[in-house]
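Section 4.2 – Deliverable D4.2 (structural model, holo form)

The reporting period included a commitment to supply a predicted holo structure for the target in complex with protoporphyrin IX containing FE. Inputs used:
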Amino acid sequence: MAGPPDARLHMTLLKAWHAWLAGAFLVAYVTAGEDAYRIHQFAGYAVLAAVVVRAVAGLLIAAPTPLRLPRPSWRATRDWLVARKGRHPLFALFATALLVVVGLVAFSGALADGTPWLEDPHEAIAEASLWVIGGHIVFVTYMYAGTKWLKRIASRLMPGNKESAS
Ligand code: HEM
Ligand code: HEM
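Output (structure tokens):
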């Protein structure tokens, strides 16, 4: 029974899950390497659990709902490049890259817990993940707000446009 109410519920679940993941990541990052190691450990494992829950839920769900795992596809990318219509392929690509990279950060942290030589690789992966996360935030901000701002600015700059009068 995958009707619209289900889709709305799944969207809400996905937003709650996103808050769990991003919130725990932020806490793990700011408590790294300080006296707050217990909090770092707790938040880091919360990130690992979030990634595992998302992967298991996404793999179990076959129906096309927002909870299905994002699947980057070369064919979809090619079609989008030709037609410039539909969902931007970078959504699926970023979602997959984030799940893999953030999962690796948390997993390497769990391994580093009992294996000191893994602390440096864990730190390096954590720092590198910030580039993917930064790219993600810039991309979603642009897709959801930036395109509207650009249209508004263009309509003001374009002579002869109705909105340029105000
Ligand atoms: C200000 C910070 C952030 C904002 C505004 C933001 C916003 C978003 C939005 C709007 C989406 C849905 C994109 C879509 O339409 O498909 C999304 C998806 C996602 N975000 Fe973020 N995000 C932020 C931070 C983070 C952080 C810190 C992480 C990782 C630690 C993260 C990981 C993800 C993942 C993995 C997805 C894909 C979810 C899925 O479909 O499985 N985000 N984000
Ligand atoms: C995704 C979540 C995580 C992030 C963003 C993260 C980030 C970091 C960073 C940046 C450092 C380097 C700190 C420094 O030396 O300045 C670090 C160290 C460390 N992290 Fe994590 N980490 C995460 C998850 C975990 C988990 C799950 C564990 C397992 C318990 C863990 C265990 C460690 C250990 C043992 C160190 C070395 C501590 C030290 O230098 O004294 N981390 N982490």
